[in-house]
């Protein structure tokens, strides 16, 4: 029953800058009539955040009186000189369903409105990866009978300017609706629903292959003064290259269509509205929901930022702080997935860009109300998209349940706290050659310098999964050359690390690789956070 009237800017993408379609013209004419309109984040089956003064907004004729009612409350406002209006509902308790009525020169009746917990899910392809590509997807889809979990997805493309709305509406979770929805987002929401027993609203704004700069307003990048060179270079590439490249891609796509459209191919997008353009995703996918009442955000991105990991140390906090400022709902919870393991295993410690992005993600825990789900044990060398999104969601939802909903459970993975160098007698295999006999190995004790690593956030006890040997540590002396190290668990929250090759150790790393072999966990199943004790520069340090 709800029909959304899109505004002019939303209908104008790059191609329509060249040719304005008759559809866009007709929509512009309709907008000139200045009927009341709302963005599609308000639709039948929506979920409002419980306990919050939820904003409702839209457009109308300047000076037009607007009334909004739900349950036993009614609110009035007047459209400003620009035809924009906004008001806030009084907080509602979890439940429903309700009808939300918006009245001006015309009236909307939004039906089956629930009140519960609303979470925004965003990032790139590992957040976008749908349920129908996750582990056990046939079972997950067949069992997706959750009418009180509601889903909405912001579609592509992005935009050069801030959009009023996007083309999707809320729908209830069912085997028919869940397959194309974000797997990590849905599994997170399902855990919340089953635990809290309240309606759940999930807003998916993920886009595969996206850079973090695309998710925030370009002005946020400009205002720092730090990324002007990057922005200038991006503008140059658009002017010099993208028009030609877009024309070529479009020609190939049209030829593919003419040939019968066999195989999968996406409609090409101009770089101006694609997933790397600074501000593009924010304008097209995020801005239409900015201010909508949410409990918090879950995030999975970083793979496309591995060429500039040291800038990610500042870009990621900038994104979080910018979103919190724009939403105006305080420091809402923001939880993310650290990059999983990927690419080949190296014979010797190598470090690298993926390890440095993970480090930047962990450093962002300095912001309030944040949390990190470690996935260093869930990836695949040959696939950048791990299918096990169920475990990802379980580790994410621990943060929400423990930190936002009062459940007594561990949420943070064990993380590096301190290192001390000590001398210790260590068992070692040495060769003993008796006269007239062959070489035999005997166990002796030798004095060694060991690095004692102490961890925070150990809820139960450290544990080496699968085998007694602790895997994943490397150690170095002053020459900064890392070698694989031996490691022993010596207490509930301590590990000693050493190597016969490093007489005087000064630095230790754990899991600081593209695809490390690691097996150190808390016994509750949370893996230890990768770390390094040094700050020595690497190949990507100054990018």
Structure description:
This protein is an alpha/beta fold and about 550 residues long. It has 3 domains: about 115-215 and about 280-305 and about 315-405, Rossmann fold (3-Layer(aba) Sandwich); about 220-280; about 415-530, no CATH class. Helices cover about 25% and strands about 25% of the residues. It is built from 12 helices and 23 strands. It has helices spanning about 10, 15-20, 20-30, 125-130, 135-140, 185-195, 220-225, 230-260, 280-285, 310-325, 355-365, 390-405; strands spanning about 45-50, 55-60, 65-70, 75-80, 85-90, 95-105, 105-125, 145-155, 170-175, 200-205, 295-300, 335, 370-375, 415-430, 440-455, 460-465, 475, 480-485, 485-490, 495-500, 505-510, 520, 530. Strands 1, 3, 4, 6, 7, 8, 9, 10, 11, 12 and 13 form an 11-stranded mixed beta sheet that branches. Helix 6 (about 185-195) packs across helix 12 and helix 10 packs parallel to helix 11. It is globular and about 90 Å long. Mean pLDDT is about 90; it is low at about 1-30 and about 430-435.
């Amino acid at each position: 029953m709800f029909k959304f009237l899109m505004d002019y800017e939303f209908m104008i993408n790059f191609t329509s800058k060249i040719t304005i379609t008759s559809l866009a013209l007709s929509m512009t004419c309709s907008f000139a009539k200045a009927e009341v309109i709302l963005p599609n984040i308000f639709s039948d089956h929506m979920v409002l955040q419980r306990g919050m003064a939820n904003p409702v907004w839209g457009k109308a004729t300047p000076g037009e009186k607007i009334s909004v009612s739900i349950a036993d409350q009614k609110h009035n406002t007047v459209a400003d000189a620009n035809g924009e209006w906004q008001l806030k509902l009084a907080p509602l308790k979890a439940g429903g369903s309700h009808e939300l009525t918006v009245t001006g020169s015309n009236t909307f009746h939004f039906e089956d409105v629930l009140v519960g917990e609303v979470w925004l899910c965003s990032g790139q392809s590992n957040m976008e990866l749908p349920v129908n590509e996750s582990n056990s997807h046939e079972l997950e889809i067949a069992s997706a009978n959750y009418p009180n979990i509601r889903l909405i997805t912001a579609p592509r493309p992005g935009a050069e300017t801030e959009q009023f709305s996007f083309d999707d509406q809320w729908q209830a979770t069912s085997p028919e609706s869940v397959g194309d929805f974000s797997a990590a987002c849905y599994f997170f929401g399902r855990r919340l629903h089953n635990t809290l027993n309240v309606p759940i609203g999930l807003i998916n704004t993920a886009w595969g292959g996206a850079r973090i700069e695309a998710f925030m307003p370009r002005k946020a990048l400009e205002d720092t003064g730090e990324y002007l060179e990057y922005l200038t270079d991006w503008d140059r590439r658009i002017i010099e290259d993208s028009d030609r490249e877009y024309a070529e891609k479009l020609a190939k796509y049209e030829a593919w269509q003419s040939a019968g459209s066999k195989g999968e191919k996406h409609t090409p997008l101009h770089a101006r509205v694609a997933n790397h353009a600074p501000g593009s995703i924010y304008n097209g996918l995020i801005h239409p929901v900015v201010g909508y009442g949410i409990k918090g955000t879950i995030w999975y991105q970083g793979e496309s930022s591995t060429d500039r990991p040291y800038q990610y140390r500042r870009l990621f906090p900038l994104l979080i702080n910018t979103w919190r400022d724009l939403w105006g709902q305080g420091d809402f919870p923001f939880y993310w997935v650290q990059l999983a393991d990927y690419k080949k295993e190296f014979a010797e410690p190598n470090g690298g860009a993926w390890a440095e992005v993970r480090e930047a993600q962990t450093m962002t825990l300095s912001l309030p109300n944040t949390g990190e789900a470690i996935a260093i044990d869930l990836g695949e060398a040959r696939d950048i998209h791990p299918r096990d999104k169920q475990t990802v969601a379980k580790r994410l939802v621990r943060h929400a349940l423990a930190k936002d909903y009062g459940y007594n459970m561990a949420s943070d993975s064990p993380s590096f706290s301190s290192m001390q160098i000590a001398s210790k007698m260590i068992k070692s295999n040495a060769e003993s050659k008796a006269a007239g006999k062959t070489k035999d190995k005997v166990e002796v004790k030798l004095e060694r310098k060991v690095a004692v690593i102490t961890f925070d956030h150990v809820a139960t006890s450290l544990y080496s999964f699968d085998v007694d040997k602790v895997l994943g540590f490397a150690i170095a002396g002053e020459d900064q050359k890392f070698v694989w190290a031996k490691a022993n668990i010596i207490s509930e929250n301590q590990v000693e690390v050493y190597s016969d090759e490093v007489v005087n150790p000064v630095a230790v790393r754990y899991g600081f690789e593209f695809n490390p072999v690691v097996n150190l966990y808390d016994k509750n199943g949370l893996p230890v956070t990768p770390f390094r004790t040094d700050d020595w520069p690497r190949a990507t340090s100054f990018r």
